[in-house]
Amino acid sequence: MSKVRFLFPALALPFFALIMLAGCGGGVNDKMLDDAQARIEALKSKGLPDDQVSSARVYLYQAREYHEKKNGSAAKKAADSMKVNLEKAEAFYQQEVATLGPKIDAAKATALKAKEELSGYQARKVDSLARVVDSFKRIEWLLQANNKAQDLVALLPALKEDEAKAARIRKMVPGDWVFQDQAKSVEDKNVNAVTRKAFSFGKDGKVVLTESKKGQSSPFLKEDWEFRSYGTYDYKGDTVVLSISRFHIVKQMFTKASVAGDKVTWKDEPGPTYDSAITDGSQDRTITYEDLKLDFKKVK
Description:
The chain is an alpha+beta fold and 300 residues long. The protein has helices at 2-23, 30-45, 50-68, 72-97, 100-115, 120-138, 142-169, 289-295, and strands at residues 175-184, 192-201, 206-218, 221-236, 239-260, 263-270, 274-277, 285-288, 297-298. It is built from 8 helices and 9 strands.
């Protein structure tokens, strides 16, 4: 009897331990899963394509689900598949990165050489994208740096085409351009308001846009206002790009009519005037040279 009594605990202990091991996820634990998640996110942040990490991400999700449900064997199987796919993704990244440095430098050199034949917006676009390439390269996000460098090279033909368009209009834009429209009404002969817009493009690259309206614009409204925008201009192909840095409301008066029987009473309602700096690009504008010629008349 004593032998049987001692044999049972000796056999039962390993069996119980196996059950506990399975219940703990067969080696799968939260720290291991969190570490795998961090490795996947690190690869993604460095620009690894989605298709290179998608399998590892799917198996990680499955492993976490099975682990939470205490299904140890399924969790371990999913975790093993996740590990294999994650190691493949990391190996792919290392293999790709090893060749990227020279490719990035060559692409950037090509762009900077092409920039010598560009000016204005076109040249600044090259500088802007080159800075992005440099910023990614500086923190060793080489996949993203290479993607931006290749985008820059792919953009060069369009920039060269825009440069040619800009060259054609560069001598024709500077000067004063005016648009004027007069609103009248057959029903009410008192309606007579003049809207005026004027661009003054300086040869120094500065621009002033003046917009105004004066007169009776409807049977019950008179307007007298003037806005001025100040800034610089440049050419993006055949489009004039205005970068506005200052907005000035010179005057703003609205006179409204109220009718009581046969009596019409007009009341002035002045609006605020101010002169402020613009730093967020909210007042920037563009106009193609063709639209400028179509809608405005060059007077100087």
